[in-house]
Amino acid sequence: MASRQPEDDAQEGPEPVTTPHADAVKIIPSPPLETRWPPFALRRYAGGFWLPEVTVKEGLPAVHSCFVPRPSDVILASFPKSGTTWLKALAFATLKRSTHPPSDGNHPLRHRSPHECVRFLGIELNDKNKDEFEALPSPRVLATHLPYSLLPGSITGDGERSGCRIMYVCREPKDALVSYWLFTRKAALARGVNVRSFTIQEALELFCDGRCPGGPQWQHVLQYWEESVSRPDKVLFLRYEEMLLEPEMHVRKLAKFIGCEFSGVEEEGEVVSAIVELCSLGKLRDMEVNRNGSTRLGTKNESFFRKGVAGDWSNHMTPEMAQRLDKVVDDALQGTGFAFSSTT
Q1: Distance in angstroms (rounded) separating the CA atoms of residues 101 and 96
Q2: Which residues cross the membrane (predicted)?
Q3: Above 60 in pLDDT, residue 62?
Q4: Pairing relation of β-strands 165-170 and 119-121?
Q5: 157 — pLDDT class (breaks 50, 70, 90)
Q6: Of residues 30, 29, 126, 115, the one with CA closest to residue 80
Q7: Catalytic residue (one of 145, 220, 250, 316)
């Protein structure tokens, strides 16, 4: 089991799930430090979420002070490694299809990664490059891994503000953990960080305590789910496992949500299936830019493309490990009315 750090004054085990909303950035004085999830040190932020130090110091303040939302903006939200890359591709291809038809041989997704086409708030935005985000043509598609409670009211539409439309994709915790662990090892190794000791067992213990970037995962998911229930016109909640089973149905669903439904002519022209084909993980994985390119932050694009299937956790976790995580999640979600899709 993962050892505790002396300076860590957080309570043992997962926190109860709560959904406070913070319009203003609230920093905890000297927040607890967690250094066991490489490559970045994490800080325990207001509301109980663990965030990379760089996000606490730079990314989050930038979202609150530098980002000026537009009513036409579409924000793609997710806990890391939950289908973000695929959702970026699908949403971009759907929203931009009038200027970039999916059959176009020069479509942006054929020579740019989804992370280049859809920029990240909370990771990329800062005071120096805010003009780049302002210059993006409407409607903008942007992404974030920030918990709902840490988004500014200008995005969520608190009070009399209209806010943006938010699409959230969630993934079953065991698959999210395994995908996150494998991605972390690859990304950390590329930065010269020794990750030999970062085993799946170590990752499991930290994940169960919510001590991973963006964690606790189930609390992250629950906040967006509750908002989707109370404001379905503003927050669309998607499940990765269901998207895998019926991708075309979900493309139509997200198109309707963002106000650009497919016309009869487009349906007859099989535009929906063309978008699904263009954005398939197999197609994206084989693109030259995704095999050999890198993001603006230096992460290799190929790191974002693995199997993309449901239930792969069973190839990396023992039944006992799975049962441990299932119990942690079930206990935390008890009484909320929410349950994850099963991948057993």
Answers
A1: 8
A2: none
A3: yes
A4: unpaired
A5: confident
A6: 115
A7: 145
Please name every residue paired with 169 in a beta bridge, in sequence order, or none if there are none. Answer: 78, 238
Collapsing DSSP states into helix, strand and coil, what is residue 295? coil
CATH code of the domain covering residue 125: 3.40.50.300
Closest CA to 94 of 237, 239, 252: 252
pTM: 0.86
- Is residue 23 in some structural domain? no
Q: How many domains does the chain have?
A: 1
Average pLDDT over residues 1-12: 39
Residue 244 lies in a domain: yes
Burial of 137 (0-12, 13-18, 19+ CB in 10 A): exposed
**Full domain range(s) for residue 211:** 33-333
Query: Residue 27 and residue 57: Cα distance in Å, rounded?
Result: 9
In a domain, 10, yes or no: no
Instruction: Please confirm, yes or no, whether 250 is among the known catalytic residues.
Output: no
Q: How many angstroms separate the CA atoms of 81 and 303, rounded?
A: 11
